[in-house]
Structure formats: C-alpha cells, structure tokens
Amino acid sequence: MEKLTSANCVVHIDAGELVSFKMGSYEIIHQKGNPGWRNSDTEMFPIIGPTNEAGFMIETQKGTAVQDQHGLLRELAYEVVDASESKVVYLKTYRAGTEIKNSKFPAKSSAAFLTWPYDFSFEKTYELKGTNLEITFTIAGEEGMPFMLGYHPAFYLHSDKPIIDTGLKKISLEDVLAVGSRALEVKDCSSITLNDKKGFTIKTRGFGSFMLWTEVPNMVCIEPITFYPYAVIQQRLDTGFQFLSKEPKVCSVTIIPED
Q1: Topology of 2-257 in CATH?
Q2: Smallest Cα–Cα separation from 225: which of 181, 190, 182, 174?
Q3: Residue 234: phi, psi to the nearest 5?
Q4: Which residues contact 50 (CB under 8 A, 6 or more apart)?
Q5: What interactions and quaternary structure are annotated (predicted)?
Q6: Average pLDDT over the chain, rounded to whole?
Q7: Contact, 109 vs 68, CB < 8 A?
Q8: Disulfide-capable partner of 6 in 90, 128, 156, 191 (CB 3.0 to 4.6 Å)?
C-alpha cells in the first residue's frame, strides 16, 4: 500500500485504488466494508455504462469488442512505475485481442471473457499538493481508438443532509437516491462541491460532465464522465465514443478539501 503525505493530509492507495484521504482526522473517502459499495474508487474504460442489453457486444472500426458494465480496465492490475512522498504513478497496459477473465461471470454476467481490439496504456497518477489531491489519467494507444472515460470515486458522508452544489443547482441526497441505479446526470459541469460537515470541491479537466450515484445514506459517488450512458439505448452506447489522437488523452480530477 502506498502512502502520500503533505501538510496535515494523508492519502492511502491500495493497488491503485484510493482507499483513504484524511485531512487531520476527517476522512473523505468511503470505507470498504461499510454499506453501499465494495470499492472506494475505480475507472470506467473504455466503456461507461451497462452493456447487457447489447449482448455485451460493442461495435468498433476494428471489429466487435466484448465488454461488461463500465469496461474491462477494472479487470487489469496496476503496477507502480514511480513513487515519492507526495506522488505515485500507476500503469495498466493491454494488448489488442487479449481475453481478460470477467470477475462478474457467472454470478452477474454471461460474458466469461472480455476483449478490446486495440492496444492501449492507461496511467493513473496521484499527487498530493498541499491539501489538494490531484488524480491524472493519461491514455495512450492507436490513433482513432474509440473510448469513453469515467472516474468512479465514493465519498464518505458525515451528515444526514449533505448538499451537492453544481454552482447552478443544489442537489440533495434524496434526489440522488430517487434515481437509483441509473445515476443522476449533471451535464456540462467541471466543478462540484459537496457540502457536508466540512466538505470539499471536485474540479475536473477533460471530462465535461458528472453522474451521481448511491443507494445508501452513508456514501455518495460523484463521478466525472466523458459520456452519460443512460442518454441512449444500450445498443447504441458506441454513440458516446471519443477517439484518440496521436497525442495521449489527459484528464484530471482535483479534490480540494475545506480548510
């Protein structure tokens, strides 16, 4: 497990997963084992959203890909490629056509193996800058490769009535719970503030929107996304693709706690 320290903040990362971000004794990240979700963060790539109604098949210019909900990246293991007291860099790589065992099979999926017809590398960097935690995603691969990207962190709630402030709208926990598993879209937004007992702001670059999800009152997922998958029928998820250029795609999320 990697540990980052700066000012009075401490971050713990387990195999690339953000499992704790404390400012003093105040915990920002949902804790595994608590009700709500078995993880504390993950990435959604190269697909965001459910694929079951499309038979787990996604069409690309290089053929059909087999993808489960939110893609296959989560099935790959990170390796540490650089680390210091305040920064750590993780890397996942994938070779086109490699069959990846689907951890949801057979209990929650009929797709035993997942595939993608493109090579890619996916770098995730955590850097603690004072009391701010910056998380940067760098995607490199074949020019023209289609993709969607979503970051799926879960946050610990300290109060009964937290408010999510988009700058244009205030969203209650009840609003998020009411949408259920589909997740609530926050369109054309790059900054959100969670007003809890202390709270924090999330600022993003390269994503464009958010979606909000929870099914319990003790945590909420505030997820930066490049595409909201429930805006289309599942058979047309490919309409949400962006495409890699010659240069890597770089997106970032900065978590800024209140003092």
Answers
A1: Beta-galactosidase; Chain A, domain 5 (2.70.98)
A2: 190
A3: -60, -30
A4: 69, 229, 234
A5: Monomer.
A6: 94
A7: yes
A8: 128
Q: What pLDDT is stored for residue 234 in this prediction?
A: 65
Domain limits, the chain: 2-257
Q: Please give the structure tokens belonging to residue 227.
A: 């595409």
Q: What residues does 94 pair with on adjacent strands?
A: 120
CA atoms of 135 and 210, how far apart (whole Å): 16
| 232-254 per-position pLDDT tens digit | 766 677 888 999 999 999 999 99
Residue 2: which region, alpha, beta or left (left: phi > 0; alpha: psi -120 to 50)?
A: beta
Phi and psi torsions of 5, nearest 5°? -135, 145
Contacts of 195 (CB under 8 A, 6+ apart): 162, 163, 164, 165
pLDDT digits (tens, 9 = 90+) for 57-88: 888 999 999 999 889 999 999 999 999 999 99
pTM for the complete prediction?
0.95
